[in-house]
Design a protein that fits this description.
Shape: globular
CATH class of the largest domain: Alpha Beta
Helix content: 25-40%
Number of domains: 3
CATH superfamily of the largest domain: Thiamin diphosphate (ThDP)-binding fold, Pyr/PP domains
EC number: 2.2.1.6
Organism: Simiduia curdlanivorans
Structural class: alpha/beta
Pfam families: TPP_enzyme_C, TPP_enzyme_M, TPP_enzyme_N
Family: Belongs to the TPP enzyme family.
Strand content: 15-25%
Number of helices: 21
Distance between the termini: 71 Å
Enzyme class: transferase
Length: about 550
């Protein structure tokens, strides 16, 4: 068989279901081999960046990698933003690129660049297939590396002449093993220290949205009552209705949940990455007793210097703590009064504008109240990057893990529309909603055609303010004014019609809930545009600046 045939068979052995991408001349043999696969579905996208975001969301939702494919040169460079986003947000992904013939890579040649070196900073591993007999080993290693905690992206480059060579090999069998678990003595020390605490609190990071970890975390909180503040990416690790759910941290400004962190004498960080919310924002004076439990050792930082650490499978670590709790003759007792107050204050804050009847533009708080009301517990919301992301992070809470997907490590605009396509492929039985700013939406607007061609059921909600609203918000906060950040927009309803989407424009708060429900009931993709009232940005900054915590 050809080397490209063997590579496809190896991907099939790994259980790969989807490859998203834009083919080119240099990966034509691979595409011919892929066309014969009855297991792997190739999704032709309109831009490689969209393909990478689709593969990222598949990985985040399933825990298994999908492929994103581009050719050499510009095809590969177009992939890199989505690849970096996936890697920093801990989503498994296979990046597959073509390359010119190995006989011309040593010299100046058409579209040739060192793609592997380009991808090394934004992947866990990147390599070239120089010998076809190495394909089974490379594919097996690539999938294993990208799935291993913490997950991320892996890059494989296949030069066009290597793809054509004959090879007599078969795929390596897939063998999966249990993750390493924390040391018993480390958990004993953490448990003994927990019993000494008076006001412990949990900061849950993206590691907690793995289903087993979320289950054990909920059991731990039910037994102890300890409150959980989640990072943007950890939403849903505990149910929003649970009394120990203290909502979300992550804004640059101090918010209500931070009051509970201020009051704590112990901060237990579970599955927490510093890229999610830097510890200088919650431990600037370095007085907190920090406990680190995660798949990997703590990153070194002067504001994040744990007193105790347990490294290994997070779900198992929480199970070990739960087993110790079961053996306690007397339940642990803590002063959680500040956490109760924090939850009450935040719940009041979230409901403040639920009955708005504004016209012309709609407050972000009202939009998200209605969205949460319409969305079911297992429905999926994807947030793009912009001012709307800050409001979603603060106001949209979740019942289940992986039901609010926010890019928060690399934090790339243009993420939500292509990501929604992948979510609709993975979960066609759920309502899928992407919320974008008008800026981020237009960055990958071409994937509207892909959604229509695949006839996917999804809704994209655009918050229109005709400007880069988040940049304006940040410049206003720092300088008291902002540079020229305004732009024009298309006629949204004509845009929807041009791509054969259903289109809706809602400028009355009272009409939003019913219109969103209508979008979900319609077959195929729908575009819902809302003139957004971003005067609320400055008002939120003012309120948070006046926030005082009574401890």
């Amino acid at each position: 068989m050809k080397a490209s045939d063997l590579m496809v068979k190896c991907l099939e052995e790994e259980g790969i279901e989807y490859i998203f991408g834009v083919p080119g001349e240099e990966n034509a043999d691979f595409m011919m081999s892929l066309e014969k696969s009855e297991q792997i579905r190739f999704i032709l996208t309109r831009h490689e960046q969209g393909a990478a975001f689709m593969a990222e969301i598949y990985g985040r939702l399933t825990g298994n990698p999908a492929g994103c494919l581009g050719t050499l040169g510009p095809g590969a460079t177009n992939l890199i933003t989505g690849v970096a986003d996936s890697n920093m947000d801990r989503a498994p992904m296979l990046v597959l690129t073509g390359q010119g013939a190995s006989t011309r890579l040593h010299k100046e040649s058409h579209q040739v660049m060192d793609v592997v070196q380009m991808f090394k900073p934004v992947t866990k591993w990147a390599t070239t297939i120089w010998h076809p007999e190495n394909i089974p080993e490379i594919v097996r290693k690539a999938v294993r590396v990208c799935r291993t905690e913490k997950p991320g992206a892996v890059h494989i480059e296949l030069p066009e002449d290597i793809a054509k060579l004959s090879i007599d090999k078969i795929p390596l069998p897939v063998r999966k093993f249990r993750r390493p678990v924390p040391d018993d003595k480390a958990i004993d020390r953490i448990y003994d220290r927990l019993k000494q605490a008076k006001r412990p609190i949990i900061i849950a990071g993206n590691g907690c949205i793995r289903r087993r970890a979320s289950k054990q975390l909920r059991i731990f909180c039910e037994q102890t009552g300890i409150g959980v503040v989640s990072t943007f990416m950890a939403k849903g690790c505990v149910d929003m209705n649970a009394p120990y759910c203290l909502h979300t941290i992550g804004l640059g400004a101090k918010d209500i949940p931070a009051c509970a962190v201020d009051a704590a004498d112990m901060v237990i960080c579970l599955g927490y990455d510093m890229v999610e919310y830097h510890p200088k924002l919650w431990n600037n004076d370095r007085t907190k007793a920090v406990i680190h439990i995660d798949f990997l050792p703590a990153e070194i930082d002067e504001n994040y210097h744990p007193q105790l650490e347990a490294v290994g499978d997070l779900a198992h670590a929480l199970w070990m703590l739960n087993e110790r709790l079961k053996k306690e003759s007397t339940p642990l007792s803590f002063d959680l009064s500040q956490q109760k107050t924090t939850r009450e204050n935040m719940c009041t804050e979230l409901a403040k504008h639920k009955d708005d009847k504004t016209e012309g533009s709609i407050r972000p708080q009202k939009v998200l109240w209605d969205v949460r009301k319409v969305m079911g517990p297992h429905d999926i919301l994807l947030s793009d990057v912009g001012a709307h992301k800050m409001w979603i992070a603060r106001h949209y809470q979740c019942h289940e893990p992986n039901t609010c997907l926010i890019p928060n490590g690399f934090c790339s605009m243009g993420f939500a529309l292509p990501g929604a396509l992948a979510a609709a492929l993975v979960h066609p039985d759920r309502n899928i909603l992407a919320i974008c700013g008008d800026a981020g939406f237009m960055m990958n607007v071409q994937e509207m055609e892909t959604a229509r061609r695949l006839n996917l059921n999804l809704t994209v909600m655009v918050w229109a303010d005709n400007a880069y609203g988040l940049i304006a918000w940040k410049q206003d906060n720092e300088f008291g004014r902002h540079t020229d950040l305004a732009f024009g927009n298309p006629d949204w309803m004509q845009l929807a019609s041009a791509f054969d989407w259903r289109g809706h424009l809602v400028d009355k708060a009272e009409a939003l809930e019913n219109t969103l429900q209508q979008c979900f009931n319609e077959p195929g993709p729908s575009l819902l545009v809302i003139p957004i009232d971003y005067r609320e940005n400055a008002l939120l900054t003012q309120r948070l600046g006046e926030l005082t915590c009574s401890i």
